[in-house]
Design goal:
By secondary structure, the protein is of the alpha+beta class. Helix content is about 35%, strand content about 20%.
């Protein structure tokens, strides 16, 4: 027996022993048809594990994970299986942990506007349960009828209304988690010090299993009206979006469909969208009746100045009809019978036209292997989903698809964007991680994984590429992560909070983002904001000569909370070195890799020094 066969045999034996012990804590199955069915996601991507375990309850997850750790068994968690990046890949030698049955809503706290749920609660089911209370959970991905709340958290899901209300990160109050060794931890938005909750959010099931989550709710808007604008060019559409936001009105949603997307949807049902438009933009405005009347008038005025056609929907029937095509785009993709790949890139909002041009240029270059590339997405925050269609029996399709995907992601990064805005890295985008991040940045992320999961047993093969020879030693960074996780992080009073003396301040008004040198003073930043008639929630009204870097590194209480919600990116050093690293960017959405920038909040230099920071801003009314 060779070494590979011997290893496989040992793994099978370990899984058998694990299964026998885990039967006390959950339903265990080796039924091949069940393993096949539960091992694939909504898109048909996945594999077949050796064993499936369904915990008897959320309290059973800890002993199951302890057993997995003891037996050296790899665990792949499964929720709603709506993931779009191959993030759930059970294969031989792994165990599928099916959490979908843990679907109880534990408590709806109407007074404090929050809800406690088990991990398997489906987003749309939660929304239905909240409706009688006049409340909702803001994240509303198009996959809400499939996606679990825990899945929303570990993917940091967005959705059409993230423009106004934020992504999942902005609504998670706390999570109870079982770590890969079976130990339990609770991470809260109110924790002081480094934002470990922020690191767990968007971690794609690689750091821990969520057993319970408490998420914030908001009142359902009294009134919601929808508008549609059709445009002759992508540039006109993007300029119109920028013009709307420049008025100070923040729409609840701004969605985008290009010509190929409109034509593609029309193959399956009559959307009513204008087939001669280059692009259409769907816009929601919501609030009180007075707020909607004001915002709708502003949006309509801007649309009529620029669009070739404008439609307004003020009742539910008309709104449903207007949105039907966009919200059913995923179903249309599956129903097409064609091969497809759903992309997910984010660029600064003002770079959407160039991204659109790059996508269609790519489609033209690879027309021999591809049918077309349709683009839809969340234009309000620059998150686009180029969906590539091809004939499965075309021998040129595979190479054309790979080349097209490479070109689209390269274009996004050249435009200041990122490789994924909300779908995650999964397995499909791992090869792009080394394009998005430097060896140092990858090494820092690997340190996080190794602290949370030293044996590499939780959702292996997802997100991080194989270790390269160029990755530097980040053991000091890992030690700081370990100390933070154990609650033993001590601060060196001599650790520098900032480095480089960067005092530059610049705003991208088309993207509503602000980049600030860490050594710029709060006074100078406020002066700049006033001059440009914008505001930044992270920057206090007073603070004098205190620097922005000092603010971020030492924030507590409400200051820390405002920074958490406004921070987009950070240029930093990694402790033990002087080489700059960048985590996050000016994009409104970025779920590529672990959200390392969160560790630098309130860390007092424990992970390294701050060089510059990027924040969200808004137009002053």
């Amino acid at each position: 027996m060779g070494p590979t066969a011997s290893h496989a045999s040992a793994t099978e034996a370990a899984i058998a022993r694990f299964g026998a012990a885990a039967a006390a804590h959950g339903q265990v199955s080796t039924d091949e048809s069940l393993l096949t069915e539960r091992g694939r996601d909504f898109w048909g991507v996945g594999g077949v594990a050796d064993l499936l375990v369904r915990p008897h309850g959320r309290d059973a997850i800890a002993p199951i994970m302890r057993l997995a750790s003891e037996h050296g068994v790899a665990i792949v968690p499964r929720g709603g299986a709506s993931n779009c990046s191959g993030g759930m890949m059970p294969t031989a030698g792994r165990v599928l942990l099916d959490l979908s049955g843990l679907d109880r809503i534990l408590d709806i706290d109407r007074e404090n506007r929050c809800v406690r749920v088990e991990p398997g609660v489906i987003n749309s089911d939660l929304q239905e349960a909240l409706a009688p209370y006049g409340l909702c959970f803001s994240p509303d991905p198009v996959s809400a009828h499939l996606a679990s709340v825990a899945g929303n958290i570990i993917e940091n899901a967005g959705g059409p209304h993230a423009l106004k209300y934020g992504v999942t990160y902005n609504h998670v109050l706390s999570v109870d988690v079982v770590l890969p060794d079976g130990s339990a931890a609770t991470f809260s938005a109110d924790d002081q010090g480094p934002d470990l909750l922020g690191v767990l959010i968007g971690s794609e099931g690689t750091l821990g299993i969520i057993t319970e989550a408490t998420v914030a709710l908001r009142p359902v808007a009294d009134v919601t009206h929808s508008l549609m604008g059709a445009f002759a060019t992508a540039r006109e559409a993007a300029d119109t979006i920028a013009a709307i936001i420049a008025t100070g009105v923040v729409p609840a949603a701004v969605e985008w469909l290009d010509r190929a997307g409109i034509a593609g949807l029309q193959q399956f049902y009559d959307t009513g969208y204008p087939l001669d438009a280059d692009s259409i933009v769907l816009i929601d405005v919501d609030g009180t009746a007075a707020e909607v009347a004001h915002d709708q008038a502003v949006v309509e005025r801007v649309l009529r100045e620029r669009a070739t056609e404008v439609r307004i929907a003020e009742d539910e029937k008309d709104r449903d009809a207007l949105w039907y095509g966009r919200l059913n785009a995923p179903n249309s993709v599956v129903q097409s019978g064609k091969g497809f790949f759903i992309g997910d890139v984010t660029v600064p909002r003002d770079r959407i036209p160039e991204m659109q041009e790059a996508i269609q240029a790519t489609a033209a270059r690879h027309r021999d292997g591809l049918l077309f590339i349709a683009v839809c997405g969340h234009a309000g925050d620059g998150d686009l989903h180029p969906t590539t269609f091809y004939d499965r029996d075309n021998p040129l399709a595979a190479s054309a698809l790979e080349a097209a995907n490479n070109e689209i992601i390269e274009a996004a990064m050249e435009l200041g964007g990122t490789i994924t805005g909300e779908h995650g890295v999964g397995t499909e985008k791992i090869r792009f991680m080394t394009k998005r991040f430097s060896p140092l940045e990858i090494a820092a992320q690997r340190s996080i994984k190794e602290v949370f999961d030293p044996a590499g047993l939780l959702n292996p093969g997802v997100m991080l590429p194989d270790r390269s020879a160029g990755e530097p030693d980040t053991s000091g960074f890992g030690a700081a992560v370990r100390a933070a996780l154990s609650g033993d992080l001590t601060v060196d009073p001599d650790a520098p909070l900032t480095i480089g003396g960067n005092t530059d301040i610049s705003a991208n008004l088309g993207n509503l983002s602000l980049t600030v040198g860490a050594d710029a003073t709060i006074e100078s930043v406020n002066r700049y904001l006033d001059e440009h008639r914008v505001s930044c929630a992270a920057v206090p009204a007073t603070g004098g000569q205190r620097t922005i870097g000092e603010l971020v590194a030492t924030a507590t209480g409400s200051e820390r909370d405002r920074i958490r919600h406004a921070l987009l990116g950070a240029d930093v050093t990694v402790i033990g070195g002087q080489t700059p690293a960048r985590f996050g960017a000016e994009t409104m959405k970025d779920v590529a890799g672990y959200d390392v920038k969160r560790l630098y909040i309130s860390a007092r230099g424990a992970f390294g020094a701050l060089i510059s920071l990027a924040f969200k801003i808004s137009v002053k009314g």
